[in-house]
Amino acid sequence: MTPDALKLYHSPASPNSRRVRIFLAEKGLIVPLVAVDLGKGEQHSEAYRAINPRRVVPTLVLEDGTAIGEVPAIMRYLDEAFPEKPLLGATPKDKGVIAMWERRAELEGFAAVMEGVRNKMAGLKSRAIAGPHDYEQIPALVERSVLRVKNFLADLNERLGHVPFLAGEHFSAADITALVTVDFARGLALSVLAEHAALKSWYATVSSRPSATA
Ligand SMILES: N[C@@H](CCC(=O)N[C@@H](CS)C(=O)NCC(=O)O)C(=O)O
């Protein structure tokens, strides 16, 4: 299959969509993009629910119509279907180490920012969790999310004091999730602190890669 036979349903402002767009750009893959207007609620339309019943972006649709949702699953498909420039590792050891750091970045960083932003923003009232079910916001969670994200950034700084990239010597999917998390954290008024020298230097490196604007 060639990349132009795929379709990526995404939203330009969605951090989860950005994780996949950066992944594609790093691999040099050009996949047709279809924008889903989250502001207008297009994710809830019958047409989009037929593609992704979870009502979230991104979704990757293959040539035979198979729809793959969930960012790590989309990354897995892309890295296996287009193995040149692997971002999830080429050896069993690299695959294990990268999966570990990418998962930590997602669970401890990205998900913490998401929890804070979704429980804070007035426009997301009753939509504290993305998906098919409505959930009321819990404002008290925002404070805890801020603490979690601050701890994540400090842990990231500690790790990057020992290695140039999150999973070791090479840029990987773990750096993509961490980069998107750091940028997304602005939604909680959090950014890299001056004393986080290693994190600051890593951030300057990864955010100056051409893929960062994808
Ligand atoms: N676990 C999903 C999360 C996807 C997700 O939360 N997407 C957000 C945009 S970043 C969304 O579609 N939100 C729609 C909504 O809030 O209704 C994944 O990995 O793809």
- What topology, given as strand order, has the largest sheet? 2-1-3-4
Q: What is the structural class?
A: alpha+beta
Low-confidence stretches: none
User: What oligomeric assembly is this protein in?
Assistant: single chain
Biggest β-sheet description = 4 strands, mixed
Q: What separation lies between the terminal Cα atoms?
A: 23 Å
Overall shape: it is globular
What are the bound molecules? glutathione
How many distinct beta strands?
Answer: 4
Q: Total number of helical segments?
A: 7
* SSE sequence, one letter per element: EHEHEEHHHHH
Average pLDDT for all residues: 97
Strand content: 5-15%
Provide the helix percentage: 40-55%
The Cα radius of gyration reads 17 Å
Structure overview:
With 214 residues, the protein is α+β, with helices and mostly antiparallel strands. The chain is 48% helix and 6% strand. It is built from seven helices and four strands; from the N terminus they run βαβαββααααα. Strands 2-1-3-4 form a four-stranded mixed beta sheet. Helix 1 links the parallel strand 1 and strand 2. Helix 1 packs parallel to helix 3, helix 4 runs antiparallel to helix 5 and helix 4 runs parallel beside helix 6. The longest helix is centred in the middle third of the chain and has 29 residues. The two termini are 23 Å apart. 36% of the residues are buried. The model has no long low-confidence stretch (mean pLDDT 97). The structure holds glutathione. The site of glutathione (GSH) has 14 residues, from helix 1.
